Amino acid sequence: MTEYVLVTGGAGYIGSHTVVELANGGYHTIVVDNLCNSSEESIRRVEELTSTKVPFIKLDLRDQEALDKVFTDYNIKSVIHFAGLKAVGESTKIPLEYYDCNVTGAVNLLKVMQAHKVPNFVFSSSATVYGDATKYENMIPIPEECPTGPMSPYGRTKLFIEDIIRDAASADPNLKAAILRYFNPIGAHPSGRIGEDPLGIPNNLLPFIAQVAVGRREKLQVFGNDYEGSPDGTPIRDYIHVVDLAKGHLAALSKLDSIKTDGIQGFVREWNLGSGKGSTVFDIIHAFERATGKTIPYDVVARRNGDVLDLTAKPTRANIELKWEVQLSVEQACRDLWNWTTKNPLGYGHEH
Ligand code: NAD
Ligand code: WQD
């Protein structure tokens, strides 16, 4: 019987790139997604890129009955869980929707997995669980041992889900979970067929820059250049190519497969997925300009609420234990983002 990897949120940005890598790695995948922030067109393109069939079921993870049916219909061995809401600012406006969607969705999924005895779980966590690591000594670059302290409802949903997974694994010897804390994913598939397609005004730096370069927005606003401790005053982030990030999920799946639990408790471990190299906002603007030959007009404006000085990963644990490391540069990510943007100036073509 064919064994499947279930990818929740697989129509989205990181999910669609991960489905491509899974297909290239010989895995059979199924995608579930409610399409609240994506379009089914991404799955169609993934199928075309990989010459494989990817069964797609439109459902919301809060619909436990619909989810249970997927586990009855397919022989699922592993779950990669991307589905959720992810906008920090929005989460401060509609926190209850974030808790419901993210936390209830994850609890339902874990319950259904347990009912069907599915062992492997890979969870999309975020570096945002660390909050401001600069307040601790010697925690930049950030190791997994850094104390957590998320600063938004969104970030707290991620940390709560991590805690729920840790509790579930201590009670269930069948559960093996990888908690992957992503730093800043950027770029697109080098084919230019799939990429990030934010609805409305982009929150994130690179999609905004790309929309300025393609003429959809006039100027970039740089949120503050008065951060002490940054070489040019703008915040430092660890930007990582989405294809490298996608490959991290295959590395985590292999790791989980190699783990034998003691029959009393399950297994759970956190891994940072980052490059270990920090870039400022101006570094990114310049990298994009070098990679594309475009000039990005910008204004420096006030700091954005909730931004911190430095989120740079210490990725050693993933390098050693998952045998995974970043292979692609920020410049390559900018080139691939530009290729995707020029080929799809309106993303997948839905209303913006
Ligand atoms: P995305 O919005 O492109 O993908 C998330 C997908 O989940 C979307 O296709 C959306 O339609 C779907 N979804 C949302 N709620 C759902 C629900 N209740 N039921 C079913 N489907 C639902 O976002 P992304 O950037 O690909 O992020 C994927 C995951 O990675 C998220 O969990 C996010 O929190 C996490 N993450 C993202 C980043 C980032 O910067 N992009 C960084 C760290 C962590
Ligand atoms: C990067 C830098 C901004 C836009 C967010 C989430 C985090 C994770 C990744 C999900 C910052 C600056 C940005 C703009 C700017 N997502 N900037 N002008 O804030 O590091 O991380 O996405 O888990 O949780 O918080 O990413 O791309 O928004 O910002 O100057 O128009 O670019 O101030 O320094 P961030 P970002």
In short:
The chain is an alpha/beta fold.
Fold blueprint:
Blueprint: E1 4-8, H1 13-24, E2 28-33, H2 41-50, E3 56-58, H3 64-73, E4 76-81, H4 88-93, H5 95-115, E5 120-126, H6 153-171, E6 176-182, E7 184-186, H7 205-213, E8 220-223, E9 236-237, E10 239-241, H8 242-258, E11 267-273, E12 279-280, H9 281-292, E13 298-301, E14 310-311, H10 316-321, H11 330-343
Parallel strand pairs: 1-2, 1-4, 2-3, 4-5, 5-6, 6-11, 7-10, 8-13, 9-14
Antiparallel strand pairs: 9-12
Helix pairs in contact: 1-2, 1-8, 3-5, 5-6, 7-11, 9-11
The structure holds nicotinamide-adenine-dinucleotide and UDP-4-deoxy-4-formamido-beta-L-arabinopyranose.
CATH top level?
Answer: Alpha Beta
Radius of gyration: 19 Å
Question: What is the total tally of β strands?
Answer: 14
Residue-averaged pLDDT = 97
Strand order of the largest sheet: 3-2-1-4-5-6-11
CATH H level, superfamily name: NAD(P)-binding Rossmann-like Domain
Task: Give an account of the 3D structure.
With 352 residues, the protein is α/β, with parallel strands linked by helices. It has one domain: 3-Layer(aba) Sandwich (Rossmann fold). It is built from eleven helices and 14 strands. The strands form four sheets. A seven-stranded parallel β-sheet has the order 3-2-1-4-5-6-11, sandwiched between helices. A three-stranded mixed β-sheet has the order 12-9-14. Strands 7-10 form a two-stranded parallel sheet. The longest helix has 21 residues. The chain is globular, with a radius of gyration of 19 Å. The protein starts with a strand and ends in a 9-residue tail after the last helix. The model has no long low-confidence stretch (mean pLDDT 97). The structure holds nicotinamide-adenine-dinucleotide (NAD) and UDP-4-deoxy-4-formamido-beta-L-arabinopyranose. The site of UDP-4-deoxy-4-formamido-beta-L-arabinopyranose has 19 residues, from helix 7 and strand 8.
